[in-house]
């Protein structure tokens, strides 16, 4: 599978590989992570971007920004990932992060019912305020703790279907479904050059340079 | 708790049901709080059930530094001569501080000098207590802390959030490493008690870090009152940072932008061009005063100075960081790399030793003072507590159950402010043509025009005059030309008007009662104009001395760039190389004395690197 993200998305110096597959289309998408505090938003990003997991991920103050590039078929997709603070107080800053976003992952913790309710609130808000074509994925995180789950898989799945969301249960700790959820989003995003949703960065440095070999 | 009267009307059964649900939610929130409190009361008692994931394994290869932080790699087993010398000096300073603390308060100059040299680590406990009036607060508020803690057990509404944050604050420090350790419990108690004491503020993420630092040096109750001073004393004014809507954050970021646009215009434009909004990196800097964004030892030095001189230090330190790393930042050509540099790299390795960084800070503070940019416009009343502290106010139901509520007016205002600032920045960049040909733009393939079309692509809802791209808002309507300059100058005029009042009327700014009327008023009359002249005077005279292009400011040859194994860019410096270099991880670059002199010299001469900016100002005048 060509889904394994290459590290170094956040470090432009990491990949100076020659022999480009420059005929690849490259797209860039803005993706925002939303959800209640301590459900594992930053951990999901860290797993996806760096392949790491920190047991004690520091709480996000404001927001963090990272990028990761993946390949699907002949297209190089670069995600600009905005990882937001979960505390309700930071909610007022959220519009700045999700406006203009082409994708969102709304995260909840499968052992916390409130976080699922909060996820629904986020979905509602995105439907109301974000761009109408936004691709939303619902992630039930901490799936490694499914023996003490509170939110049932079927319940969340049904909710996701009713609201047109992608849905997966994920575990940032084990890596389960983490790449997959990003890949599913990438697949669903329009990758036509002229499409409103996608952005081709004219200088093109990052997408081509960092991902030359990722489709092999 | 008062129960709502029963509803008898037909068809309102649903309402009744809803009410019951609400009550159940409240009850659940209360039970949860009680349960969490119980666990903290038990502390490390064996009967306290700790989930396996909550405690780290104590890997023996972890090594702990003098502040209690553990590192993945072994620390050096022997001290080098420089380290030995530092320890010797610190011991000498200990003695001086012991004497000075007995004879408190010392003459200001003496205190200033010693604080800037760095409070010896062993003396931070008594010194910080003095600087934050801890003993005095404890004496006048005897018994209050215990009462607040008790009240928190019964009424706190932020317990779950605090619990989640305590569980991840400084877990790489021995004091906080073990779940429910003494310090973890103290941190939990302080934050809960404070959320009740200052019920208007409650708890905001970021406070755990601030209180966590205080607790490394103080006892629980001391840290509580120290935290209170930081939050409520206008000198530090952290209430305005943490309160809903973050009004002080916006005010400070605006001022930070103002400083950048005046002193480091090239970098400012570089940031805007690459969508690096100050909001991105500055929230953490301002909220926790640089902890976890620069090496811990340096953040302590900044804290020392912050506790002495108040919140203006935060603005100056922000500028200092950007100044010291300006050259490297200008070389980074995408947002990703710039953010990584500011958020991660500088924390691991600042590239300058603490003394040099603090010297740079001191000089930049002086520079800002000379340019009258050291103090931001005054606070509005919403940055300070309006409710009496320590008086119990029962939280409403939404708060108890953690339901989402509508934005407050402050929140709405702040969002608008942020948007207009970003809009303003975007206009500014787009209206400046000279940038294309400037040094830092070389190597970039695309022009501003392309950039503009790119950002408009990112917008899906075209219902507003601005489009929102990547990290925020970018103007897409082409409004370059005189109008933009005017808006910029109006902004400056207002600031100048405020400065004028501050200087010439010798007003004692009662920050509580003096909203920024002079600042926000739109009267660009001749008096303001006069003062703008005055405000820019120092800039202009310095400008005269620096008419040569920026590239000639640097007194060293252009370093060559090599690729390190980590992919980190390393500047290979010649003998005189100084600013903006970053060594690979784990290898601190220490400047020798010759470099230090040069560094200081450069701050004086180089900080207003911005010739074109000044000429813009001049032509406008």
TrEMBL record, chain A:
Sequence segments annotated as region (Disordered): 1-23, 194-216
Keywords, in A-Z order: Endosome, GTP-binding, Hydrolase, Lipoprotein, Nucleotide-binding, Prenylation, Protein transport, Transport
Domain of life, source organism: Eukaryota
Database matches in SUPFAM superfamilies: P-loop containing nucleoside triphosphate hydrolases (SSF52540)
Catalytic activity: GTP + H2O = GDP + phosphate + H(+)
PROSITE patterns: RAB, RAS, RHO
GO cellular component, one term: presynaptic endosome
NCBIfam families reported for this sequence: small_GTP (TIGR00231)
Family from the record: Belongs to the small GTPase superfamily. Rab family.
Protein name, as recorded: small monomeric GTPase
Lineage: Eukaryota, Metazoa, Ecdysozoa, Arthropoda, Hexapoda
Gene: Dgri\GH13785
Automatic annotation (TrEMBL), chain B:
SMART domains: TBC
Domain of life: Eukaryota
Bias-annotated ranges (Acidic residues): 605-614
Disordered, as annotated region: 1-23, 501-528, 600-621
GO MF assignments: GTPase activator activity; small GTPase binding
Gene3D superfamilies according to UniProt: putative rabgap domain of human tbc1 domain family member 14 like domains (1.10.8.270), Ypt/Rab-GAP domain of gyp1p, domain 3 (1.10.472.80)
Domain Rab-GAP TBC: 118-310
Descriptive protein name: GH22945
Gene name of the record: Dgri\GH22945
């Amino acid at each position: 599978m060509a889904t394994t993200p290459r590290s170094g998305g956040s470090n432009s110096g990491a990949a100076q590989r020659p022999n480009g597959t420059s005929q690849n289309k490259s797209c860039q998408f803005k993706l925002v992570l939303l959800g209640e505090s301590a459900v594992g938003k930053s951990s999901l990003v860290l797993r996806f971007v760096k392949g790491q997991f920190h047991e004690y991920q520091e709480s996000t103050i404001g927001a963090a920004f990272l990028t990761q590039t993946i390949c699907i078929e002949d297209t190089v997709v670069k995600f600009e990932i905005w990882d937001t603070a979960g505390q309700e107080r930071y909610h007022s800053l959220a519009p700045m992060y999700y406006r203009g976003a082409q994708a969102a992952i709304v995260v909840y913790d499968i052992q916390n019912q409130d976080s699922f309710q909060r996820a629904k609130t986020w979905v509602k808000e995105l439907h109301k305020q974000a761009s109408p074509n936004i691709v939303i994925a619902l992630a039930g995180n901490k799936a490694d703790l499914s023996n003490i789950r509170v939110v049932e898989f079927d319940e969340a799945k049904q909710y996701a279907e009713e609201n047109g969301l992608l849905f997966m249960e994920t575990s940032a700790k084990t890596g389960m479904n983490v790449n997959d959820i990003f890949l599913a989003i990438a697949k669903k995003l329009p990758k036509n050059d002229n499409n409103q949703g996608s952005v081709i960065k004219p200088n093109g440095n990052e997408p081509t340079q960092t991902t030359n070999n990722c489709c092999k | 708790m008062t129960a709502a009267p029963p509803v008898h009307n037909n068809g309102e059964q649903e309402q009744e049901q809803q009410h019951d649900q609400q009550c159940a939610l409240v009850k659940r929130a209360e039970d949860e709080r009680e349960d969490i409190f119980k666990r903290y009361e038990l502390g490390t008692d064996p009967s306290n059930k700790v989930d396996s994931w909550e405690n780290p394994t104590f890997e023996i290869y972890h090594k702990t530094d003098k502040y209690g932080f553990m590192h993945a790699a072994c620390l050096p087993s022997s001290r080098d001569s420089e380290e030995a010398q530092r320890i010797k000096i610190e011991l000498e300073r200990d003695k001086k501080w012991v004497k000075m603390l007995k004879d408190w308060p010392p003459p200001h100059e003496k205190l200033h000098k010693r604080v800037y040299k760095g409070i010896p680590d062993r003396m931070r406990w008594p010194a910080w207590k003095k600087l934050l009036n801890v003993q005095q607060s404890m004496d006048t508020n005897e018994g209050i802390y215990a009462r607040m803690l008790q009240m928190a057990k019964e009424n706190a509404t932020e317990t779950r959030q605090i619990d989640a944050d305590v569980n991840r604050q400084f877990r790489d420090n021995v004091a906080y490493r073990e779940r429910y350790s003494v310090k973890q419990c103290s941190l939990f108690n302080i934050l809960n008690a404070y959320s009740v004491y200052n019920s208007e503020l409650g708890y905001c993420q970021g406070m755990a870090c601030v209180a966590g630092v205080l607790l490394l040096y103080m006892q629980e109750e001391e840290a509580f009152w120290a935290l209170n001073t930081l939050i409520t004393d206008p000198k530090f004014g952290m209430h305005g940072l943490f309160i809903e809507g973050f009004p002080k954050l916006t005010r400070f970021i605006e001022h930070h932008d103002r400083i950048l646009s005046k002193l480091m215009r090239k970098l400012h434009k570089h940031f805007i061009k690459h969508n690096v909004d100050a909001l991105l990196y500055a929230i953490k800097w301002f909220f926790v005063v640089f902890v976890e964004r620069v090496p811990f030892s340096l953040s302590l030095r900044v804290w020392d100075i912050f506790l002495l001189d108040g919140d203006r230090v935060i603005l100056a330190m922000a500028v200092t960081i950007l100044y010291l790393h300006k050259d490297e930042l200008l070389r980074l050509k995408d947002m990703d790399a710039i953010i990584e540099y500011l958020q991660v790299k500088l924390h691991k390795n600042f590239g300058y030793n603490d003394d040099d960084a603090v010297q740079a800070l001191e000089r930049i503070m002086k520079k800002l003072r000379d340019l009258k940019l050291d103090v931001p416009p005054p606070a509005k009343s919403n940055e300070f507590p309006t409710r009496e502290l320590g008086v119990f106010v029962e939280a409403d139901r939404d708060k108890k159950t953690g339901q989402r509520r509508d934005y407050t007016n402050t929140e709405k205002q702040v969002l608008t402010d942020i948007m207009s600032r970003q809009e303003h920045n975007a206009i500014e960049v787009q209206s400046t043509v000279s940038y294309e040909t400037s040094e830092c733009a070389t190597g970039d393939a695309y022009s501003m025009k392309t950039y503009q079309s790119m950002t408009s692509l990112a917008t899906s809802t075209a219902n507003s005059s601005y489009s929102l791209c990547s990290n925020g808002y970018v103007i897409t309507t082409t409004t370059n030309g005189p109008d933009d300059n005017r808006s910029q100058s109006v902004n400056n005029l207002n600031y100048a008007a405020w400065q004028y009042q501050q200087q010439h009327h010798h007003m004692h700014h009662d920050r509580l009662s003096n909203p920024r009327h002079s600042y926000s008023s739109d009267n660009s009359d001749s008096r303001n104009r006069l003062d703008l002249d005055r405000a820019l005077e120092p800039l202009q005279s310095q400008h005269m001395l620096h008419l040569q292009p920026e590239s000639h400011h640097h007194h060293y040859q252009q370093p060559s760039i090599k690729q390190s194994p980590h992919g980190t860019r390393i500047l290979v410096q010649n003998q005189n190389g100084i600013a903006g270099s970053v060594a690979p991880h784990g290898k601190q670059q220490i400047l020798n004395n010759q470099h230090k002199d040069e560094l200081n010299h450069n701050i004086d001469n180089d900080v207003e690197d911005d010739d074109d900016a000044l000429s813009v100002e001049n032509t406008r005048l």
